[in-house]
Amino acid sequence: MRWRELLSEAWRSARSALVATVMVAIVVSAMCATTGLTVGRAIAAQSQIEARLEEAGSRSLTVTDARGGGFLTSSIIDQINAFSIVERAVGVTAAFDSVNTAIGLGGTGVPTWFVVGDMADAITLTWGRWPEPGEALASAEAVQALGLEVPVGSVVQATHHPGPGIPIVGSFTAREPLTHLNAGVVGRAPQGTVAHRVDVLADSSSNAVLLTSATVHLLNRADPQDLSIDAPTSLAQIETEVLGDLADFNQGLVVLVLVAGAVLVSVVTFADTLVRRSELGRRRALGAQRWAVVSLLVIRSAIGGLVGVALGTVIASAVNVMAGVHPDPAFTVATGVMALAVTVVASCIPATVAAHQDPVQVLRTP
Amino acid sequence: MSKGAAPLAVRDLCFAYRKGAEELFGGLSVDFTPGTVTALTGPSGCGKSTLLYILGLMLTPTAGEVLVEGARVDNLPDAERSWIRGSRLGFIFQDAALDPTRSIVDSVIEPALYAGAWRRDMLAPARALLEELGVGERVDHKPGQISGGQAQRVAIARALLTSPPVILADEPTGNLDASNTTVVLDALHHAARRGHLVVIATHDPAVLERSDAVVEL
Known about the structure:
The complex is a heterodimer. By secondary structure, chain A is an alpha+beta fold. Chain A folds into two domains: 175 residues, no CATH class; 173 residues, no CATH class. Chain A contains ten helices and eleven strands. Chain A has a six-stranded mixed barrel. In chain A, helix 2 packs across helix 8 and helix 8 packs antiparallel against helix 9. By secondary structure, chain B is an alpha/beta fold. Chain B has a single domain, classed as 3-Layer(aba) Sandwich (Rossmann fold), CATH 3.40.50.300. Helices cover 36% and strands 22% of the residues of chain B. In chain B, helix 3 crosses helix 4 and helix 5 packs parallel to helix 6. The longest helix of chain B has 16 residues. The radius of gyration of chain B is 17 Å and the shape is globular. The two termini of chain B are 28 Å apart. Chains A and B meet through helix 1, helix 7, helix 8 and helix 10 of A and helix 2 and helix 3 of B.
């Protein structure tokens, strides 16, 4: 039998076996809608949790020179930056208080740091220009505290007043995870300055443990008391476990829905073949080969399945949109494809059984 | 399949529905002659329809052979037997067995599709055949909209469409009145005159009376 004729025959047959086609469509649409409304939402929630955990600093690591050993050099920071799992690493000196040079010690003190490494990794320039070594930028909060009208002027270390000033040449906002810098003044460290602490951001929270281990190995301190490490290992671990649990739950739910759907499609198709025994027997008696009968029944179910996928996807999407949930479109497409595949596989078994029935027995049974 | 061989023959045929059950036919050997109407007859339960289904390759004999145009076919795989059934044999059932959901003309075309034909190529010959059998005005009707005699003529058209050398008919007049029986027998004899071998399982005296040969089971 030619494939085009077979498809046309299946279409005609799907329309004549309307009850079975509609039943398959209802089962498949229920599969798609259930998956979209439960797992789709769970996956959207999973993405939100993931994003929040990433924001919470589960991938940032802070190394502090605990005894002032001076080992956090710009070269070390460059080497940490070169790790493939590092998004960025930046060192800062220990904070000191500085005051507006024009006001002197009577002015409000603001914390001041020098950045060792690329300043753009620590802050974003919002006004003025990037400072040269020995120059600095003031945050909006610091500009106010220093009594400056615009972020231009000079500050001096409170303990060195009167002394050499640090010119302010602009303003900034700090980048994650160095948001504490927003409280003060940040200067470009002169050549040879060593950092007091280095903040390192891993490319993903799952790499936080590996990054901690690699950094400790690179620093290679004989005495572990030389440095203190603030690693969000436990947070990263919790994130991994929570996301793993959610993924397991989602996969389990998808499998459950698909298996239940497969059983129902199989039952509907089997019942349909029983109702239409004489039709199938007639086809076999008139020369239809087994593969043609199997294909006919499977395509007939697939037609119902296609209608069900469209219906279920529209229902799930509409309800999700109304509820303000936006599951990944790729997930929606994958659900439809899987539901259709399950329909085809589930109808193969009863179709094969029907095609192997003895046509004589079928034709002779009233 | 060899030229000159009988379109259909059986050799030393035996059949039992299951092991230990009564064996039918007792080593029957028959060469069916092309261009004739041959009746298979005998008392009820003697295996008339069973023999027809064996000839139609839907049942496999427990012993002996079925030959189509000289070649043994009863031991072929299902796919090949199905192909022979669709292309070399035409089948007429007692109750016509038309698909109630499709039109008369599509019912006639059905076996041709299984034999690999295109529907569009078969429409005109199917209409012509239905016209010839006197149901030309009903081509677009559904089986439920025609009489039993007309349905059986449609079934004959269905069996003839692909011009198979052998037509097998299982009690084709069993449900018909006398006038419809005559019309159906005329159609089958007309097919035989055109070279088809027609084998009818029957116990209807009207059929036996007009048959060219009778195989008593």
